[in-house]
Design the sequence.
């Protein structure tokens, strides 16, 4: 095994191990303190602990520290990534306890992009497009960085309708970003994907149907910010945009149908549960149009079936992202 491969293995394994060890502790602690919510898509409405994102943050932090120790030349990249997700995670933790306003939360997540700018941890030349190649966006691009982090973090937060949906789809996106980084030779993106992937796999195991823990906004905002940071720092913006298409579409339809920024707790639920336990699209005209509602419009599904369908959609977007990466190689 080469030295580089060994280092990459250690980076992945450190985050995976820390999350694996800390997740049961987080579950016990949150259950004991009664920090959680009701799983509304179950007939018996069980209580499920929240803030599983804390274990994801812990694992990712250890992965980043391991990367800095093993690969000192990656320090600027890794630390800007870590600062970004910790700021987003802090915003999420505050929202978990204080219920931030629907306009305040997106505004605060803009600040998560500032470490990337402050540490110049992005492609100063701009975005690389398929067919076109390298573009020059030296003036405009820095203004787009905080916006991109706010979009990915909040779009991820908005697409968490069923057990395992957010954790599973984000795991799929991370895997395809990692593969795209290999195709394009983006070593920074590869490193950051390894830092995130281990904790995400652990979280998906505990969050999949039936969930033992929910992410909380501390998890969804930090994971979404991490994916945005990987795309910016690693130069995978267009690839990530394709891989992230389901989340973007879900957010777009939700916001356009309501006509403003909103919190899920402030609007009617787009999904209802039937007597047989299957989920159906609500008939309430005031409920937002979401990807979950659109999927269930074809007919009722059990929650596990709906979750798997989300993962299939994310996988299709992932393969399209890989194709995009190949076209960028051809263009350059």
Sequence:
């Amino acid at each position: 095994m080469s030295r580089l491969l060994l280092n990459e293995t250690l980076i992945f394994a450190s985050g995976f191990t820390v999350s694996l060890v800390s997740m049961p502790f987080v579950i016990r602690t949150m259950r004991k303190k009664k920090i959680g919510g009701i799983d509304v898509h179950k007939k018996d409405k069980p209580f499920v602990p929240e803030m599983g994102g804390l274990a994801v943050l812990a694992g990712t932090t250890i992965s980043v520290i391991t990367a800095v120790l093993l690969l000192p030349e990656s320090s600027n990249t890794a630390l800007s990534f870590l600062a970004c997700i910790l700021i987003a995670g802090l915003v999420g933790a505050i929202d978990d306890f204080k219920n931030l306003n629907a306009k305040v939360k997106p505004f605060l997540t803009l600040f998560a992009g500032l470490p990337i700018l402050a540490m110049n941890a992005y492609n100063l030349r701009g975005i690389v497009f398929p067919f076109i190649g390298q573009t020059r966006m030296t003036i405009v691009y820095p203004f787009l960085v905080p916006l991109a982090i706010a979009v990915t973090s909040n779009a991820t937060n908005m697409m968490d309708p069923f057990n395992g949906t957010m954790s599973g789809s984000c795991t799929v996106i991370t895997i395809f970003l990692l593969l795209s980084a290999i195709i394009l030779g983006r070593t920074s993106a590869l490193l950051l994907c390894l830092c995130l992937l281990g904790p995400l796999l652990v979280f998906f195991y505990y969050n999949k149907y039936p969930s033992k823990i929910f992410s909380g906004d501390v998890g969804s905002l930090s994971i979404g910010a991490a994916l945005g940071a990987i795309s910016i720092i690693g130069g995978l913006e267009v690839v990530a945009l394709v891989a992230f298409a389901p989340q973007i579409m879900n957010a777009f339809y939700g916001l356009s149908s309501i006509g403003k920024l909103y919190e899920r707790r402030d609007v009617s639920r787009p999904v209802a549960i039937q007597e047989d336990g299957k989920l159906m699209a609500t008939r309430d005209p005031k409920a937002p149009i979401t990807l979950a509602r659109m999927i269930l419009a074809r007919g009722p599904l059990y929650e596990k079936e709906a979750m798997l369908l989300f993962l299939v959609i994310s996988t299709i977007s992932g393969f399209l992202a890989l194709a995009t990466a190949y076209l960028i190689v051809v263009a350059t």
In short: Residues 3-237 form one domain. The mean pLDDT is 91. The chain has one domain: 3-237. The first strand starts at residue 36 and ends at 38.
